[in-house]
Amino acid sequence: MRRILIGSFLIVLAACTTADVEQVTTTSVADEPTTSTVVAEDSTTSSMAETDSSSTTTTEAPTTTTTLPLLTGIAYEKVAGGFSFPVFVDAPLGDDRLFVVSKDGQIHIVKDGAVLVEPFLDIRELARNDGEQGLLGLAFHPDYPANGLFYVHFSDRHGDTKVFEYRTSSNPDLANLETGRLIFVTTQPASNHNGGMLAFGPDGYLYVGLGDGGGANDRYGNGQRPDTVLGTLLRLDVDGGDPVGGVEYAIPADNPFLAGGGAAEVWAYGLRNPWRFSFDGDLLYIGDVGQNRWEEIDVAPAADPGVNYGWPITEGTNCFSPSSGCNSDGLHLPVIEFPHSEGCSVTGGYVYRGEAIPELDGRYFYSDYCGGFLRSFFYVDGAATDPQDHTGEVGSLVNVTSFGTDGFGELYATTAGGDLWKLVAER
Question: From CA 407, how far away is CA 98, in angstroms rounded?
Fold first, then answer.
């Protein structure tokens, strides 16, 4: 058994800003750094094989059955450290490397258990690293093994949101900076609630998460306006468009506002800050950061267009304020919510689909930047079922910035202090 102390950071990523704190009565950020203990145990397996021999006139190949030992628990195992405020980890399907995104504008590769010295991508000259701003997201093209394309979501030097496309160089561990191509840009009225997530959906389109523009109380009035790209999930066809004509993406024909009523890029709206979202088969899971009372996890069919997640009419399942109206008709309410007595900024995660811990198959895992817990549930018939809190097993991580998966579906977490953790079985 090994016990690891992790120092905390004071920034609350993607959570309450100075404007928000004026209204916060249930939680606060400590003035002094705190520590938390994580217990990580090396997992061990054992097997027993018995053979019988007898004298016969014929020989048959023995039948071998492999059975995993019973699962006794799960734990966090430290994979690597020393990153500069890591905010995401990802890998192309079937790739045995890990790509760790740091807020300062670098992506580093963990290969064969070691962090490569030279970063895979370094755009520190382009990205603004300040508070909630920086290099925030990464997504590999579904055909990455063939075309080498990947996409990053970052705040530029002016604080505006940009999505860039890059291509890997002839060295698979290095990106070719000269291939950088601006796919999408939007101005940001404030430095918080910039979103940051990118992911390709089961339909092959790129989804981009953007917050409501920042401040508090939906200051800029974007939450219930699908005609703006802020406070939304965008859905883009990065394989379409006309680069020669300056159009860097196409709008999928079934986007809900293509014919009017909203911005053509918008797929869903009513979000405060969808810091992390993920797909599992035909379902979309969103961890939407609340203001000063409630954090939420939303689940909806990935193919449902125009979903309104309610902000600022609702915060969680609750009326946000009488002045914003409290009619929840037509809103898609969360399946999980928790109060700020338990956290401050939800960190949305993933449904586990790895092979190392089959007992967890189908469970959606999530955490909170301040709460540090690890919780999960099954989503069945439109509801969260069998909710579990695993913190007693794995320990509490300080400042969980994100979850991610490797090329084989195993689950990882990043923490603001610079570490990368893997969820492993204890047997």
Answer: 8
- How many other C-beta atoms lie within 10 A of the C-beta of residue 70? 7
At residue 142, the 3 state secondary structure works out as coil
CA 122, CA 102: separation in Å to the nearest integer?
A: 10
Pairwise pLDDT comparison (52 vs 244), residue with the higher score: 244
Contact 257, 179 (CB under 8 A): no
| Burial label, 61 (beta-carbon count in 10 A; 0-12, 13-18, 19+) | exposed
Measured between alpha carbons, how far is 219 from 427 in angstroms, rounded to an integer?
51
Identify whether the C-beta of residue 399 lies closer than 8 Å to the C-beta of residue 15. Answer: no
Span 207-234, mean pLDDT? 97
Helices (H) and strands (E) in the chain, counts: 3, 30
CA distances from 269 to 228, 248, 416 (A): 9, 23, 28
How many C-beta neighbours within 10 Å does residue 36 have?
A: 16
ω before 312 within 30° of 0 (cis)? Answer: yes
Alpha-carbon distance of 340 to 368, in angstroms, equals: 10
Q: Which domains does the chain have, with CATH numbers?
A: 2-41+69-426 (2.120.10.30)
Task: Read off the tokens for 337.
Answer: 């919510």
* pLDDT of the residue at 246: 72
- Cβ pair 369, 400 in contact under 8 A: yes
SS3 167: strand
pLDDT tens, residue by residue, 318-371: 999 887 779 999 999 999 999 999 999 999 999 999 999 999 999 999 999 999
Q: Note the pLDDT tens digit of each residue in 90-134.
A: 999 999 999 999 999 999 999 999 999 999 999 999 999 999 999
The partner residues of 110 in beta bridges, in order of sequence, read 98, 115
Residue 339 pairs with which residues in a beta bridge? Answer: 294
